[in-house]
């Protein structure tokens, strides 16, 4: 069994790392305890589109408008404080961060894509780009925990939320002769729960405080990782 790395003074978890925890506890443990990461995937469609969509939303923010695909489908308007939003978006140096009060050295943090404000409540917006309709049809399975966490982090940072978030799916539909890509856009309203976010965080902490889990039967990376720890 691999030894724990001794230089870690704290462990920071995020919506993406908790996605890994839910998918394969062993890969999650190896990443956070021993610094062994899965091979990086070559095609990062989601991150590339995030870099395009955020400035696109910012353009409408400056005009005090919603993007047309959100009109009549969401509560509130785009959060106006661009400077603060940029801090909330920064996942590398997060300002939306929660330190567990009883589990020393464990933090939960995340970066928003965007945020709505209805005059009282803050409502996270998360962009998703996919070529498959299965993700839209199974939103709760794939993305519920992420939205739970964003609302939890906003609340713990002193911003009032109402148990609500939105997923905005941009599904590539066709490419025109000018190289312009058209999208099928779906806006999905999702309820959130703070207790669920905290429970997931604490379950992941408990796993990290224990021994390395067994390989997951459906994980193609577990056998690859064994080459580094045997």
TrEMBL record:
Residue span, PD-(D/E)XK endonuclease-like domain: 12-225
One Pfam family per UniProt: PDDEXK_1
Protein name, per record: PD-(D/E)XK endonuclease-like domain-containing protein
UniProt organism field: Candidatus Tagabacteria bacterium CG_4_9_14_0_2_um_filter_41_11
Lineage: Bacteria, Candidatus Tagaibacteriota
């Amino acid at each position: 069994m691999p030894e724990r790395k001794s230089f870690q003074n704290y462990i920071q978890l995020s919506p993406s790392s908790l996605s890994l925890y839910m998918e394969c506890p062993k890969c999650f443990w190896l990443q956070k305890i021993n610094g062994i990461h899965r091979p990086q995937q070559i095609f990062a469609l989601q991150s590339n589109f995030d870099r395009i969509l955020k400035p696109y939303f910012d353009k409408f923010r400056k005009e005090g408008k919603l993007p047309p695909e959100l009109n009549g489908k969401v509560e509130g308007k785009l959060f106006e404080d661009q400077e603060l939003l940029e801090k909330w978006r920064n996942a590398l140096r997060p300002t939306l961060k929660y330190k567990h009060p009883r589990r020393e050295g464990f933090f939960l943090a995340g970066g928003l894509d965007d945020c709505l404000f209805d005059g009282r409540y803050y409502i996270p917006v998360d962009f998703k780009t996919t070529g498959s309709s299965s993700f839209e049809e199974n939103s709760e399975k794939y993305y519920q925990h992420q939205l739970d966490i964003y609302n939890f982090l906003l609340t713990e940072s002193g911003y009032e939320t109402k148990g609500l978030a939105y997923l905005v799916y941009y599904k590539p539909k066709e490419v025109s002769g000018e190289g312009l890509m058209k999208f099928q856009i779906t806006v999905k309203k999702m309820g959130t729960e703070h207790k669920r976010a905290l429970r997931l965080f604490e379950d992941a902490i408990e796993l990290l405080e224990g021994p390395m889990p067994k390989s997951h039967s459906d994980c193609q990376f577990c056998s690859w990782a064994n080459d580094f720890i045997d």
